[in-house]
Amino acid sequence: SVPAAQVTAGEAAYAERCAMCHGDELEGTAGPPLATDYFFERWADAGEFYDYMHTAMPMDDPGALTGDSG
């Protein structure tokens, strides 16, 4: 299981850096939704998704996400 502190940090990072485009409920607004069959099929490889996030996201500051600070 994931430690509660890690969950809390992830939620805060998502709210700060991702929700503006992907929505509070992952529904997608300016960016694509993150909870659809298409998303899970496109990103079946978690490593590829992780690499993409760290090199291309957020759109306004690509590469700004880090493993430590989100």
SSE map:
Blueprint: H1 4-17, H2 19-22, H3 37-42, H4 46-56
Task: Please give a quick description of this structure.
With 70 residues, the protein is mainly alpha-helical. 50% of the residues lie in helices and 0% in strands.
Characterization of the model:
The chain has helices spanning 4-17, 19-22, 37-42, 46-56. By secondary structure, it is an all-alpha fold. Helix content is 50%, strand content 0%.
Q: Count of DSSP E strands?
A: 0
**What is the overall pLDDT average?**
91
Question: What series of H and E elements makes up the topology?
Answer: HHHH
Radius of gyration: 12 Å
Number of contiguous helices: 4
Q: What is the end-to-end distance? A: 20 Å
Helicity, in percent?
40-55%
Secondary-structure content class? mainly alpha
Large-scale geometry:
globular
Low-confidence stretches: none
User: Which strand-content bin applies to the residues?
Assistant: under 5%
Largest sheet: none
